[in-house]
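User: Please fill in residues for this 311-position structure.
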């Protein structure tokens, strides 16, 4: 069995639905919470996303350009490129991802805790969160994929680590909201915490921050904060945020989950109070204001009064 096949098997055992050659789907923790308990994720609080109608997927489930120490996903791969000739078609990925979502949801239909009306909505997702695992911008037809999503009236999120700015520059169809994860205030910490697999990664990350103000879409900078690693340094983060001019900034605490437990300690998980203090300091430095927060997710939303609900 090849390394890729072994990786697929591991992900399937963890509840992933494999789609084609390089994509995957997985039911989000908050989707299950929404169906079983009526609880919504922070993206609902911040941006109006219905958790039970969100399709969490990746078109590059086995490919990434970093091996972040804090990442809670499986990292048993080192592939950093998907060749166009080997890539699945965007429409195929979307259609098969929706089918996998249905398959993964099928067992919830008979659960007494789940409203049948809500289940019927869940099997027809309205939102695509391109953020499951890997680096989505490595998929060479990502722009066309978002176009297919938008044809179906679906809203879209893309979460990128920022190491592939040329892919963003070439996109004709952007996601409805673009996240860039900035988990380090400087190159020294970046190399230790994010462990880039490609050359000039810090330079590329800064390049995408420079591009962000010119993009015709909603933009977010996410600071994933790990105690004893990258928490604090508000002045350096503020300079990066000022370069990017995002619609929103999300300081979010690292959570001691999954595979990250092999590399981190529970003490590395900051409290919500620490994240809020960071957010307050960053707001003072950047001119943003704290608009919302979710204690259960240890996340703060900084903004400048722009429309929060995604349409």
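Assistant: Residues filled in for all 311 positions:
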């Amino acid at each position: 069995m090849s390394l890729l096949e072994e990786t697929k098997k591991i992900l399937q055992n963890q509840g992933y639905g494999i789609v084609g050659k390089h994509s995957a789907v997985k039911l989000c923790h908050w989707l299950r919470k929404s169906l079983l308990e009526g609880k919504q994720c922070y993206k609902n609080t911040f941006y109006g996303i219905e958790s039970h109608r969100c399709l969490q997927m990746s078109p590059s489930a086995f490919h990434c350009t970093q091996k972040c120490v804090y990442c809670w996903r499986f990292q048993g791969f080192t592939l950093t490129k998907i060749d166009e000739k080997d890539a699945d078609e965007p429409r195929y990925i979307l259609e098969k991802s929706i089918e996998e979502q249905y398959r993964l949801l099928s067992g919830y239909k008979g659960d007494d805790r789940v409203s049948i009306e809500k289940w019927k909505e869940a099997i027809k997702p309205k939102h695509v969160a391109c953020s499951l695992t890997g680096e989505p911008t490595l998929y060479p037809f990502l722009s066309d994929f978002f176009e297919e999503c938008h044809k179906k009236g679906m809203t879209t999120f893309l979460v990128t680590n920022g190491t592939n700015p040329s892919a963003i520059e070439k996109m004709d169809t952007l996601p409805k909201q673009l996240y860039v994860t900035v988990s380090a205030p400087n190159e020294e910490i970046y190399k230790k915490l994010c462990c880039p697999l490609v050359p000039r990664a810090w330079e590329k990350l800064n390049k995408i921050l420079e591009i962000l103000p010119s993009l015709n879409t909603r933009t977010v900078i996410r600071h994933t904060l790990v105690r004893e690693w990258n928490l604090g340094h508000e002045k350096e983060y503020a300079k990066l945020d000022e370069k990017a001019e995002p619609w929103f900034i999300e300081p979010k605490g690292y959570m001691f989950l999954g595979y990250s437990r092999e590399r981190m300690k529970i003490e590395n998980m900051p409290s919500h109070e620490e994240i809020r203090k960071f957010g307050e300091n960053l707001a003072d430095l950047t001119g943003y204001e704290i608009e919302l927060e979710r204690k259960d997710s240890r996340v703060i939303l900084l903004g400048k009064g722009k429309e929060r609900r995604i349409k």
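For context: Strands lie at 17-19, 23-25, 54-58, 127-130, 155-160, 177-181, 218-225, 248-253, 289-294, 299-303.
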